[in-house]
Amino acid sequence: MRQIININRKWAFSKQATSVPAELPMNWDWVNLPHSWNAIDGQDGDSDFFRGTCYYVRKLEKLDLPEADKYYLEIKGANSSADVYVNGKILAHHDGGYSTWRVDITNTLKADNLIVIAVDNSANDKVYPQMADFTFYGGLYRDVNIICVSEAHFDLSYHGGPGLMITPEINGADAKVEIETWITNPVENQIIKYAIKDADGKVVSEKETADTKVTLDIQNVHRWHGKKDPYLYTAELELVVDGKAIDNISSRFGCRTFEIDPENGFILNGEEYPLRGVSRHQDRWGFGNALLPEHHKEDIELICEVGATTIRLAHYQHDQYFYDLCDEKGLVIWAEIPYISKHMPTGRDNTISQMKELVIQNYNHPSIVVWGLSNEITMQGDDDPDLLENHRILNDLVHEMDKTRKTVVAALSMCNIDSPYIQIPDAVSYNHYFGWYGGETSMNGPWFDNFHAKYPNIPIGCSEYGCEALNWHTSNPQQGDYTEEYQAYYHEELIKQLFSRKYMWATHVWNMFDFGADSRNEGGENGQNHKGLVTFDRKYKKDSFYAYKAWLSDEKFVHICGKRYVDRVEDVTKVTVYSNLPEVELFANGKSLGKKASAEHFFYFDVPNCGETELVAVAGEYKDSSFIRKVEEFNPDYRLREKGAVLNWFDITEVDGYFSLNDRLSDIVQTQEGAAFFKGLAGQMMKGLGNTQVDSEQMGGMMMQMMGSFTVLRLTSLMGAANIKFSKEQLLGINAQLNKIKKP
Question: Is 515 helix (H, G, I), strand (E, B) or coil?
Fold first, then answer.
């Protein structure tokens, strides 16, 4: 029977080596898997994390393995390309850093063996992703196993899949379950035993046959119904030859129906089931993307606590263990490939191979309902014939491979709703940041209303929205200030707008957790995107976390916002309370400040601020407390301080009556000279992106729509996420130009 031997321990590792070693290098570093070489430098900013080829080497004695006919090396994640060598012979190459792949090493094995895996995350023009707002951590960052099987065995070679496809079809109260499998090196007298077991392990349907595709019946089927009832069956298969079982595989699955209705949103098992949730990146502070099972489990528990019904697993295939957890918890999942930001004409084959791996490896997960074709891929224009053809190929491929699910794209905010790109998938979601990257929070809902009115038959959702927050605080939150208070305000407004629009098929906050983005130098903590509802280390739930919990969770609670904002200068300060109970009473030093009712779950109190005040919020039997203190001067520890900035605002020369880098774009373009200046700056940025399809005037208009409320200095710092960097001398040169443009 099949046996799986984990070989995570004791690999020799080197970033300095330049060739495949012939023997185990005793002077290299010793690491256990999962491992990433960018766990530190991929999270500290300046976009300087190491990208290149590193080597992992391990000895393997055949005597330590069970006796078997065939041995496969299984690599569950090597970012982003890798070569496998056994005893000096190259056996395989793989492009794509987020999927499982396997190598037959049987014929190369000796008594003593040297396994070398060369992993490469270098920049190139054929393997996605190459441009995106997250760190491309290099490493063997998931498990590595040896799979030991008989000569005849269930398939292990087809795109890293599990060797079986399970397709349930519900008919009334019953279900027909089609199970298809593949046998490597089949023999004439083989029999396959098929069995379906319920959640208690009881066999509910079975069959013995030589056929590799069968249909089994489940009477009175128990449906997988999201968080309300995430019921799972298990399909177990045995390969039997001459009465002896020689191989076995199994997979859990769920029976459910779903629709994506352009008017009524997501429908699960015939019932409206609003998809309101979050996106998730797979990394963590100090670990990079080399997560342990307990990390994945903590993530899913936090997502369940906030009350989400859906997760967009961005921007690549995640660990199989996490998909398993989503099945168990009943989260509805958007799964996608890293076809992101920059279309590469030489990368088409890689989009196809990564999509095949995504679908084949994850086909049996009931949690997955849509396959994502791309994310913000029109950053350099939406009319490239090659880009459009690539998407049509992927769309047709997915529908051919999986007739049970839908396709979707996450469209760049600036992508025209009339674009042919928008017409390709079954559903569309947009990444909108009105209220953060320019615009106003009030623009979000009306934008979707306009889309829905013009294209009422296209399901529309919001795949990204959010704003950044660190441990900065203010009583007067403003767009772009990185305070926890502005993030809370932003999400209050977005919740009210998005959740009230029934037709939106799904909404996904960007992001559940802060994550590594080494090109970012902003917010006072470089190397991260801080849009998370929870900090990168998962230790602090920001106030906005509780705003969503108030709307989405059935777990009763009350939460006082602003716990980290203690020192306040105003005589009367605003205190916000979140709760999913209908009424909240707030006490200040034991004195009631009254009761508030709110159908929107957000309760606002004006609190006298004198001396030291203990606040206690009471909602039913639930309580929460916090503390504020009156001070005469604003605490400077609450104000944003940039670290390692090329140029700080106070270093900028300002001329009275003239513009500077510290002025907002929307003000600058009000003058003829300012508009001309900005057009030139937009052109410079597009040239840096390598764009040849969008002219600077068009790009300038799109940038102004999104980023008009930004200062020029902040805009230039944000462009680092697209690998467009300005030196101090360049910024001072731009400032000198602005100093010559008179304010109106």
Answer: strand
- Cβ pair 302, 531 in contact under 8 A: no
Question: Could you give the dihedral angle defined by the CA atoms of residues 140, 146, 147 and 152, in that order, rounded to the nearest 10 degrees?
Answer: 120
Nearest Cα residue to 45 out of 689, 714, 730, 642: 642
Given 376, 484, 525, 585, the catalytic residue: 376
Residue 701 has pLDDT above 60, yes or no: no
Q: What angle do CA 348, 349, 353 make, to 5 degrees?
A: 120
CA angle 524, 530, 535 (to 5 degrees): 105
Q: pLDDT category, 707, cuts 50, 70, 90? A: low
**258-261 vs 265-268, strand pairing mode:** antiparallel
Strand 11-14 with 29-31, pairing: antiparallel
Question: What are the tens digits of pLDDT across the range 55-105?
Answer: 999 999 999 999 999 999 999 999 999 999 999 999 999 999 999 999 999
d(CA 668, CA 674): 5
Nearest to 585 by CA among 629, 621, 548, 556: 621
State yes or no: pLDDT of 476 exceeds 50. Answer: yes
Domains, the chain, with CATH or none: 3-148 (2.60.120.260), 164-253 (2.60.40.10), 264-460+475-503 (3.20.20.80), 567-637 (2.60.40.10), 646-738 (no CATH)
| Range in 35-49, 94-108, 549-563, 663-677 the model is least confident about | 663-677
List the beta bridge partners of residue 268. 258, 271
Angle at 50 between CA 44 and CA 54, to 5 degrees: 140
* Residue 192 C-beta-side C-alpha neighbours within 13 Å: 25
**3-state class (DSSP) for residue 28:** coil
Contact (Cβ atoms closer than 8 angstroms) between residue 208 and residue 193: yes
Active site residue 376: yes
Give the helix/strand (H/E) hosting 706. helix 696-707
The pair of structure tokens assigned to 377 is 């891929």
Q: How does pLDDT run across 560-602, given as a tens digit for each residue?
A: 999 999 999 999 999 999 999 999 999 999 999 999 999 999 9
Tokens of 599: 């159908």
To which H or E segment does residue 737 belong? helix 728-738
In tens, the pLDDT along 291-347 reads: 999 999 999 999 999 999 999 999 999 999 999 999 999 999 999 999 999 999 999
Helices then strands, counting H and E runs in the chain, come out as 12, 44
Calculate the average pLDDT of the chain: 94
Whether the per-residue pLDDT at 690 is higher than 60: the answer is no
Look at residues 78, 601, 176, 716 and name the one whose alpha carbon lies nearest to residue 404.
Answer: 176
What is the DSSP secondary structure assignment for residue 601, as one 8-state letter? S
pLDDT, position 78: 98
* Region at 353 (left for phi over 0; alpha for psi -120 to 50; beta for the rest): alpha
- pTM, entire model: 0.92
3-state DSSP of 196-265: EECCCCCEEEEEEECCCEEEEEECCCCCEEHHHEECCEEEEEEEEECCEEEEEEEEEECCCCEEEECCCE
Instruction: State residue 687's pLDDT score.
Output: 61
Strands 139-140 and 528-529: unpaired
Rounded Cα–Cα distance for residues 507 and 478 (Å): 24
Contact between 366 and 300 (Cβ < 8 Å): no
By CB atoms closer than 10 A (0-12, 13-18, 19+), residue 698 is middle
- CA pair distance 403, 189, nearest whole angstrom: 33
